[in-house]
Amino acid sequence: MVTSxxxxxxxxxxxxxxxxxxxxxxxxxxxxxxxxRIRFVRTESGEKPQAxxxxxxxxxxxxxxxxxxxxxxxxxxxxxxxxxAGVKVRLRRSVCQALMNHCGQSSRHGYEVAxxxxxxxxxxxxxxxxxxxxxxxxxxxxxxESSDRSSSHIRVDEQSWGNVERTLLxxxxxxxxxxxxxxxxxxxxxxxxxxxxxxxxxxxxxPYQFALVVDPGSMQAGLFYWSDYDRKSQGRPCRxxxxxxxx
Length: 247
What we know:
The protein is an alpha+beta fold. The protein contains five helices and 13 strands. The chain is globular.
């Protein structure tokens, strides 16, 4: 079980220049104020969930890495880990649209929303003098239901997380997809990753896994990741706009 309590934003905020390759000039993450916390609560029983989707509705899905037309607009993000391994993330137009639709709900009701991103992961093996490269193709947006949320926090209980895990298990078994990332919105605080967010991100320990924080008003997003999970070293956040994937 991973939980975190409230933290003040200035205490836990880290702002860095962007490291996203979407068009040029580096920008600095917004300064955020206010209180922020996120909690993921999950069972530690070790039981594997059954491959049923529960009441989870997938907002966007591609059957395979080439299912979408090559002409479909795509947002490409890239960054490097402490090991010198590279990560390349592909967000198709349909995924950006699904994210905007779900995250946009925060602007209407004022609460945080959250979800998980799934898709294909391909590792290009290391060669002499070169670190491995992880190529990610995000294909599925899986929302997380929560009844405990506000403008500055969201709590995911065991039942809701179990529903997501069952959906992911189905995607893995039928389409060979995997869990790539999670996301949540900041309706009022700006884009940053709190200490509580980093605590929650410990559930995502693969070197290629990342997290998104989305401002639902502007649809600006920050990508956060572990530069070195074992050392709990935080990487340099990437700043981009989901609207870029719609162009």
